[in-house]
Every structure is written in structure tokens, then in C-alpha cells.
Amino acid sequence: MYNVLTLNKIAKVGTSRLGDNYNYGEDVQNPDAVLVRSAAMHDMEFADNLLAIARAGAGTNNIPKDKCTDRGIVVFNTPGANANAVKELVIAGLLLSSRKITEGIDWAKTLKGNGDAVGKMVEKGKSQFVGPELKGKTLGVIGLGAIGILVANCAVSLGMKVMGFDPFMSVDNALHLNPAVELMKSNEDVMTGCDYLTIHVPLTPDTKNLVNAEMIAKMKNGVRILNFSRDGLVNSAAILDALKSGKVAKYVTDFGTDDILGEENVICMPHLGASTPESEENCAVMACDQIKDFLENGNIINSVNYPALSMAKSGDIRFCVMHKNIPELLKKILSEVKGNVENMLSKSRGDYAYTIIDVTGADASNAESISSVEGIIRVRAI
Asked: For residue 202, what are the CA distances in angstroms to 3, 7, 59, 329?
């Protein structure tokens, strides 16, 4: 029986896939795995038996990844599960940034009580809410992952010229990108050439304040900037200064902070990107499937701290070994395996590595001798 702690409400369509061999819920003690959405985990104490944490969503800033890696705890996320939901909101953001829709709606409410005169008042006052069409304008997309690609492709369908940049774009993502999207050589090339800019990258030390005063100064006058990725990617002080000067026409974000709330030409949403029932269900299903496959088979799919590694089972027993990425360590591990190695797969990610060894003629007690090798973080027998 596996124990799975849920720190947030996880859609039943996901947890129901775990099966009868799982005890899951918000009151579970000594969990083998944790399912989480937005709950902060940095101050949590982890028991020695915790094997995995799955984030039902893409971002993992709420999880202490370095701590987990050092202890052999695999951290999963669900890339792409909420991509369509975010894409749709970004498209709405593009329209809101252009057409002064929210301002017009707020103004229309003030006409209440004017009876038959409302029609004439609307015709007289609507000119103040004029805004440009998207067709023919250039959209810059920073980050061409699951969400960025959908946004770029949709923008092409809307008649926009689209340019993008992503130094880490996978072959699979490239194959799904509309060939009309122009790939640029740098973030700066994208930012300085677009009428609209949307950002779809994780928040890291390298991407913090990606949009800053220096970069904004190089952009087109009247650029419209959208941030539906993470707070911290756009420098708020720089944006506010640029809005006041007219350099930036509109800033639309899904991340409200006190300094930008209520400011003119800022449209701030309450983190609605993945807030659809379809998205929550997709994330829950993916997170639960990944947890189940790892606990039962040792396979890793969509981890943010350990390498992706999957292998069909063979032999009598499987040893799952988390270890440092050190020369000759794999040879030492194999020297401690009792029995015949039927199959093996090993991959590294930075300073850490993960190895699956299927063995005939050994039992779970062999895990102890494998664990004795210097550089081993954790060994599990399945």
C-alpha cells in the first residue's frame, strides 16, 4: 500500500487512477509521495520514506527542489496539461491590451439610469476606446514551450506576424511550431522588433527582470507587454515608468502585486491562467499517472530535478538508484549487484544521475550493499 498526501484539492479524475493499492488524502501520514498544486512546501519537513512530489501544474517554485534532489526525492510537474487554458487567456490578453475593452465596459456601466439617452451617449463617447486590430501586427514570443507554441500558432491564425526565441526548444516542439513563425537569435531580437510581447519562460536567476528599463528603452514606442508566466520576469518599477511616459501602451499580467494594482493602463488578473476545470483535470491525471509509474515501476517522466528514464521491467527484481554523477561510480554499483543483470539504463542530469537495474537471482536485501557505495543517495528495490 502506497501513501499519497494531497496538499491541495486534486481532481478526482486524477486520484481515481491510482487504484486500490493507494491510500491518498489530505490527512495521510508518512507519505511515499505528495500531490500539490500551489501549497508552499519550503518549510515542510520530509520523512525519510518520501520518494516523490508531483506538482499538478508547470511551475515548481513552491517546492524546495535542491533539498529534494540531495535527498533523492523526484519532483515532477505536468508540462502542457494546462497549456490550452493559458493560451486562451493570453489571446484574451492580446485583445484586452489593444481594444480598451475593460475601460469601455467600466464606462458603459456609468451610463445606467439615462434611459433612452443611453444609445446616443454610447455613440458619442465610444471614440475614446478606439484601439488597433491584431491582424498585421507583430507578436514577439519569448519561450516556445508547450504554451508559447500554442500562442504563437494561434497568433498566426489571427493574421499576426510572429517572431520567437527559445534557446532550449526541443525537436518535438519545433515540429509543432507553425513554419510562419520567424525564429530569432536572442531575446533582444524579439523584444526590439515586436508590437506585442508575451513571455512564457520559468522564473530563474537568469530570467528574473527579463523585461527591465534597459530592454524597454530598446523596444518600439507603444509596445504592449503580456506576462502570463511568472511574477518577477517583468520589473514592475520599469513598467510603471514606461507606462507613464507612453513608451509602453499597456501591460497585461496574471500576477498582481501591490505596486501595479489599479495603475492606469495596467490590466491585472488574479492568476486565472490554469483556472479551468479541463486544465485542473488534465494536470491531476498527468501528475497521478507519473507518481504511479514511478512508485510501481521506478520510471521517471517530466521530472524537474532528475533525468527522464523509463524501461520495461525484466528479471526478478528492479533496483532504482539515485546517485551522484561521478566517474566510475556506475562500475562500483554493478560490482555490488548480486545475480545476473538482465537490463540496465542510466542517465545523468548535471551533478546527479539515476540508474535502473533489472536483475535475476537477487532479492531486496541486495539494496543494502548497493547503498554502501560512496556517492549513492538512495536505492529502492521494486
From this structure: 30, 23, 7, 33
